[in-house]
Amino acid sequence: MRIAGTLAAVAFVFLAYVYLTLPDVRALARTNPAKTAFAELREREAAQAGKPLRHYQVWVPYTRISQNLKRAVLVAEDDAFWQHEGIDMEQLKISIRNDIEKGQVRGGSTITQQLAKNLYLSPARDPIRKLRELIIARRLEAALSKARIFEIYLNVIEWGDGIWGAEAAARSYFGSSAASLSAEQAALLAGAIINPRVYSPARPNARLLRRQRIILSRMGAYVPPAAVPVVNSQPQPSDTNEEADGAPSTDLAPSAEPIEPAEPAPSAPPEPTAPAEP
After folding, report:
1. Does residue 174 lie in a domain region?
2. Domain range for residue 222?
3. Is residue 186 part of a domain?
4. Quick one: CA torsion of 162, 69, 32, 83, rounded to 10 degrees?
5. How far is CA 165 from CA 48, 52, 62, 161, 240, in A?
6. H or E stretch including 173?
7. Cβ atoms of residues 198 and 91 within 8 Å
8. Nearest 5 degrees, angle CA 271-CA 276-CA 277?
9. Residue closest to 137 by CA, chosen among 124, 157, 153, 154
10. 86 Ramachandran zone, left/alpha/beta (phi>0; psi -120 to 50)
């Protein structure tokens, strides 16, 4: 009995420590994040490898992101985004079951969870990191509107080597803006989120083209809200460096269909696994 009480006390202290050391996300309702944990990770990796750092990001408000891209990302990453409160319990149960039965991680992460991980955490797959991700996701949902969460997500996620956010991806791969992405281009970008450093919209392989077709077939059912208040219209740090640094050298892909598909990548993509993959 005494041992059980001690263990319960230790667990309580540990959970309290985890909770109290988590970031305060309320500022994101008024300001855009200047940098993310994932961007800092790429900086460290480049420094360790002795490679020049490439970071191309141009922040754009929600109203300047194509509805096509919003629909495509919802289909690919989180089709229940508007219904859940940061955590999709059904997908989480499936993910846990697969972890136990198959020793594999299957995508149970919502867009809110992915944002929590990108902003504040690492890609490590351990229970403590996952617990922190779940708590931060709930904090994001409590502090921000759904549209604001989606706006930040579309501006900070990695979309290739040194390419961050929808605007940088649209310019790099298609020579256009995030506002003018076609349905085909949007579906290709959304399909690459699963592992953007392996699946390139500039040179889509057979698996990415297949994901593009699936996403296109399902996009019509999702209608994101048309507008969200502009939080910060001032130039972001990446905007000021844009002309000096330029976008990473990336072959443009004006359309997906004419491109000769490559063989699927040999390595399994990390979490999150898109729900669009049958």
Report:
1. yes
2. 61-245
3. yes
4. -130
5. 24, 20, 12, 12, 16
6. helix 166-174
7. no
8. 70
9. 153
10. left
Residue of 240, 28, 252, 77 lying closest to 160 (CA atoms): 252
Residue 103 has pLDDT above 80, yes or no: no
Round to whole Å and give the CA distance between 254 and 271: 28
> Distance (Å, rounded) from C-alpha 112 to C-alpha 87?
8
Q: Total structural domains in the chain?
A: 1
In a domain, 256, yes or no: no
Tokens of 57: 């990001």
Whole-angstrom Cα distance, residue 18 to residue 259? 48
CATH of the domain at 189: 1.10.3810.10
pLDDT in tens, 212-262: 999 999 997 666 666 555 555 454 444 434 433 444 444 333 333 332 333
Tokens 């990336």 belong to which residue? 250
Mean pLDDT on 138-164: 95
Q: How far apart are CA 171 and CA 155, in angstroms?
A: 13
Give the separation between CA 209 and CA 199, rounded to whole angstroms. Answer: 10
Residues paired with residue 164 on neighbouring β-strands, in sequence order: 57, 158
Cα distances (angstroms) measured from residue 121 to each of 26, 91, 130, 166? 17, 21, 9, 21
In a domain, 20, yes or no: no
CA-based R_g, the chain, Å: 19
